[in-house]
Design a protein that fits this description.
2 helices, 4 strands, about 25% helix, Dimeric_a/b-barrel
Length: about 90
């Protein structure tokens, strides 16, 4: 059984560069979804990888190397979803 590690990364970009950064993020292997958001952070990224070492490689060797990324926060997903309460 293959376990896929899922993480959410919140990205803060330099002013006015969120569109360019989002396009660069979409090119990275393992990046499954990219959303421009409003608030403290500019972009939300969903990454999937087969193990924690691959996640670390994607974030530190690829994602954080993109010009205009000022900071990131990484959150490890612990389950595949929670049903919303009605």
């Amino acid at each position: 059984m293959i376990i896929v590690r899922k993480v959410i990364v919140l990205v803060n970009t330099s002013l006015g560069t969120d569109g360019h950064v989002a396009e660069e993020l979409r090119k990275i292997e393992g990046v499954k979804e990219v959303y421009k958001v409003r608030g403290v952070y500019d972009i939300l990224v969903k990454i999937e990888a087969p193990d924690p070492d691959k996640v670390k490689e994607i974030i530190s060797s690829k994602l954080r190397k993109i010009d205009d990324i000022r900071s990131t926060i990484t959150m490890v997903v612990t389950n595949d979803g929670i049903s919303a309460l009605a």
